[in-house]
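User: hey, got a sec? need FXL18 protein folded
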Amino acid sequence: QEVVSEESEEESNGVNLMEFSDEILLHILSYVPCTDLVLNVRRTCRKLATLCLDKSLTHTVLLQKDYKVNKDKVKQLMRDIGKEIYQLNMAGCYWLPSSTIDHITRCKNLVKLNLSGCHVTSLRLSKMLSTLQHLRSLAIDVNPGFDASQLSSECKATLSRVSELKQTLYTPSYGVVPCCTSLEKLLLYFEILDRSREGFMLSGQLMVGESNVPHYQNLRIFYARLAPGYVNQEVVRLYLAVLSDRTPENLHAFLISAPGSFAETGATKNLLDSMARNVRLDALQLPKAWINGSGLLQHLKFNNPFYFSFSRCTLSGGHLIQRVINGGKDLKSLTSLNLSGCVHCLAPESLFRKAEDDIDSSILESLVVSCCNLRHLNLSAAHHHSSESIGNHLCQLLSRLKHLLSLALPVCSITDVGASVEKPPTTPNLVPQTFGRKVRIGIQTYPRNLGDQTNQKIESSVFWALMGSLRFLETLEIIGSSFSSAMPRNEPAIRNSLPPCVRAQSVGDSEVAAISQLTYLQSLTLAQLPNILTGSGLVSIGLQCQHLRTLSLANLGMMGKVVYMSALMDMLKHCKCLRDLRLEQPYFCAGAQFFQALSHCSSLQRLCIVSRSGTLQSDAVMSFMASCLEVIMCHMFMGESLTVCKNLQQSIVRSFQAERPALNVVIFPLLHEDLTEVIRDVPMRHLDEITLFKSRVAEEPPNLWW
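Assistant: Yep! Here you go:
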């Protein structure tokens, strides 16, 4: 009776949700997936039935990470609100059958459509686009078998009005580019493999009937990202050939991201010369071979630049200051800067300098003062060693950038100069990398009083001060300058890794604990921190960083055993918002206790474990999948046998595929010779976002696509 009376009292004193104003309710409903709003919530009462169909909620429909959506839900959604949809994002919906695309024809008023990662044939694309006369923005994949001759005249008429096109190529082709005569923004992603599944070498020549010329006269933004491989380079040159003949007058962003060596040719040199004469850029990224040793940057003109990427270039700090930021003049418009792998960018010159030499703090200070509004900064994959000058440490200078939202740094750059050593310390964790027994995960091996340990060192360190000054940072990457993942793309797994930088030897648990000051942190990457002894700082992050959604840990502590397992399990118990977890560590034991701790991450959707000589317990994996209902991706590349891996993969698919349509499971021996063949079947969304390790800060301009 007391319980009933208390509940009735709460009802009389409480606020009924339906008593809120329409504006507040609409704001609350904006956080609910559109499929739930239309198919479920609006059926609860008359008021919600009206609000759920408000234009503010139906104007833009985002299905790109709605992993529970299926063909029937899409069909019903299009029937109910198809005419009200102006923007539809289905990027990465790889699990939906190609026939799902047919229902988009009901969206007669569609202006923006993203179908990247969806299965679309030439005929289905033609039928769909023929009905979308208002379409202005389109994103599609071009797969083997695509035939532009199958596009109808009505489809080509729609494409002629498209001003924004994002095209991912899995086969040598122009795709629909020649049909888009009004292009202002062109984004090209080249994912063509050098060999077919049968092992035949592919050619970069376009297929028969692909001789039409792209129309670039109105182009304002050109972006091309190449996966490794010579075929991708051959095909992108065909796209660039037209640009070299006549550079668009309104071009203000020119970006080419190419790994490895991408040699400059006569045609590309003519293109760059034409750009230097005729355009003023706001965003620039070029292959390193096009910049290294050339005076190009001296001749290019910039208007109000917002993005620069000189990743892996040998650009010196002197050239950076003089040619890019005009001798330290005001460059407040720049919001994103990628200097990843630019080993000499903080030194006055690079001719006689070693990569491990100290940086010139005056160059970094000029950069910080001139680009005071930077929101995204990447300094990873280089040795940025601060000198002993007081007040000139890299962390102290970066603390002035109060607007930073994402930051990537090498491990050796965050250590206090006084704490750095010339030779590895004689702590137990630095035994040879090939030795070491597996740690017993059932025993707590880190100090229980985290507050005492935290106060020992880091509150007076420069990195602690930096983390304290960047309170609104959302993405942080601390990556060893010599770190390389065991899973490079299109190549066999790497068996040996390079040793960490000497300056990085003192970076460990206390520096990790300093990260816990970042209250709004959403994404964290830690790789090759050699002095991790217990992982106690991870627990602090789990407790304090309650918005953490993405966590990637690689090669922490000694390589012979996982010294931070107990702390990691304690950390995971507090990560209620964690959606993506990637772990890369030799000898990792994915057993019952680990998966029991991971089960506390109720929002987890994607899990990737990469471990040379690592082990797993099949029963524990199955129990984890059964308890974590949101998990739709499980990738494990371990040291188990092929039979064990295949049996577990089949069991997961058989047990959970029906209720999780987007389920993608890959369990495979890391060092197996067929690993690259298995990787090529992974959906690009997962491969690019989590399975493959890379630095993602300032990887491309912000808001490049919606």
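Quick note: The longest strand covers residues 301-309. Let me know if you need anything else on FXL18 protein.
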